[in-house]
Design brief:
Elements (H helix, E strand, L loop, with lengths): L1 H28 L1 H7 L4 H16 L8 H22 L3
Length: about 90
Amino acid sequence: MRLAYKWQAALIVALGLFMAILDNTIVSVTLPQMQRAFHTDFETITWVVTGYFLAHSRRPPPPGIPTVRAFQAAQGDIALTWLRERLGWS
């Protein structure tokens, strides 16, 4: 019975991670549509999306799902690195 519980927990964690990845993928795929809707250039909309990713990566950790938090933190670190390189803040 204990093994079945571990698999259920692993499935829930995997589902949460999948939802986080899906959310970010949807935002990334809709960049051209957002660019047209807001009548802006690609660089500006990329800044907005970078802010969105940073905001999501710096949230407090969700209880019971440390792997999702680690994934969000990694996303935030990547976005911050990209932002620092872009602005020349080495």
